[in-house]
Amino acid sequence: MANFDINLIKDEIKNELQAFVDTTFPTHYITIYRHPYFNTASFPAINIETVDMYQRKAGLGGVKEKQLRLRIWIFVKIYDPDEAEALLNDIGMEVLEFIESGGMRKRTGLWDELDVEPTEERFEFGAVEDPENFLQGLNIPVYVKRRVVIDD
Fold it and tell me: What is the C-alpha separation between 72 and 142, in angstroms, rounded?
């Protein structure tokens, strides 16, 4: 049984999202990063942030369920809030529908389930200010589950 490797999972999500946004938004050059926004070189950008990971017993015989929670952040460097929200909403809805439709489910065998976390709001808008950039963004909470057999 394959390991639950966070870096492999984030790489696969990054590759799947990059292929998706390249075909869906050919006029916007959107780069996908596996690191936080403050290391981002170009915008619009999608960043994949690890929130947490945990493991719970899921059955007899050492079966465990591992879950990884991620935030998929979409950032734009647009000062006008209405224009930024419109672009973020367009990109966010497409990415959300791609995830919810199963576009990344079980494709490589790295996970058993990948979906958007059930929350009241589908995604959240916000602004990020750092010394070099004023960014507007939204985040999509995502979880990845994998059932694995652990030899004790």
Answer: 7
